[in-house]
User: Which sequence fits this backbone?
């Protein structure tokens, strides 16, 4: 039965990603909002809902390492795999506004979680966990990010490439677009849940820890909405949604998912080690470096290949840790 849920979940995720991309793009054109902003907010929120539901359910059931591992693993997967795959499909042009504001916010969110998790290693007394006050603080960061993002959207120059709209094909009816977004989000959430349920069942039978399952199987499964949405967006030439989706999702995962979950119930890190947090932070920094330093602010195919190799190395290290 786990295999059936695995396949069904994957099909729903792929279909939902396509509906969500088309609906979100239509709304972007209708309301005069750029694809980048839609990717940073609406799409990022929608594709982060599997992590949110997994986080809340895991915390309430006393499986906090699964919740944190899911977020950390998803953020690593988003940069190494999604940006890597999208770059292999179509080299990614990284605009100046993204390099100067959005990606640094991804780094900031990673550093915030690293600072919380590194407490014991820095000599801070007390258990290694995300407390309720820290959860509230993370969520407040999300509100600041949302306010800043929309304020930037209002003041963006028409000549700014990141503010430009997608192709001028006939506008979709607004209610049809909203319906596609709702249908897509529903398919992504249910499909992601079923995929994770099937994958977790298979992984549990292999005797893997909750933290390791969260960092690998569940993280990859719950990141499939981001992967599917970004691949479809790249194939359609809508790299604004693809990049914005990854950036927004990583920020939402830490500030929203862990913020809300820790506010409901404090989250001990359990088997999530400092190395995992460092790799997540390092991935964010590498994303910024590739965008700024090489290829005239373009993440080329060879850089996408490097990102994918980094993820393969990370997974191999996790597998070797089982022995």
Assistant:
């Amino acid at each position: 039965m786990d295999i059936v849920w695995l396949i069904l979940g994957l099909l729903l995720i792929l279909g939902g990603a396509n509906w969500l991309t088309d609906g979100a793009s239509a709304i972007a054109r209708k309301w005069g909002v750029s694809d980048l902003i839609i990717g940073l907010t609406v799409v990022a929120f929608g594709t982060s809902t599997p992590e949110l539901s997994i986080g809340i359910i895991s915390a309430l059931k006393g499986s906090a390492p699964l919740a944190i591992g899911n977020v950390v693993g998803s953020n690593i997967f988003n940069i190494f795999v999604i940006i890597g795959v999208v770059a292999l499909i179509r080299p990614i042009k990284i605009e100046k506004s993204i390099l100067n504001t959005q990606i640094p916010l991804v780094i900031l969110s990673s550093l915030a979680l690293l600072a919380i998790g590194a407490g014991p290693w820095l000599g801070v007394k007390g258990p290694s966990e995300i407390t309720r006050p820290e959860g509230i603080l993370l969520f407040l960061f999300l509100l600041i990010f949302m306010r800043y993002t929309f304020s930037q959207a209002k003041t963006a120059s028409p000549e700014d490439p990141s503010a430009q709209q997608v192709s001028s094909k006939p506008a979709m009816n607004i209610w049809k677009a909203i319906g596609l977004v709702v249908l897509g989000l529903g398919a992504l959430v249910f499909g992601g849940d079923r995929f994770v349920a099937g994958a977790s069942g298979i992984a549990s039978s292999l005797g893997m820890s909750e933290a390791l399952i969260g960092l690998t199987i569940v993280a990859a499964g719950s990141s499939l909405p981001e992967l599917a949405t970004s691949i479809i967006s790249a194939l359609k030439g809508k790299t604004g949604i693809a990049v914005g989706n990854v950036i927004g999702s990583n920020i939402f995962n830490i500030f929203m998912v862990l913020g809300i979950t820790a506010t409901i119930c404090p989250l001990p890190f359990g088997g999530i080690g400092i190395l995992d947090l460092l790799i997540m932070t390092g991935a964010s920094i590498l994303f910024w470096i590739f965008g700024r330093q090489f290829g005239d602010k373009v993440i080329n195919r060879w850089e996408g290949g490097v990102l994918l190799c980094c993820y393969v190395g990370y997974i191999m290290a996790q597998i070797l840790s089982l022995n």
Summary: Residues 77 and 137 are 25 Å apart (CA to CA). The two ends are 28 Å apart (CA to CA). The first helix runs from residue 2 to 31. The chain has eleven helices and four strands.
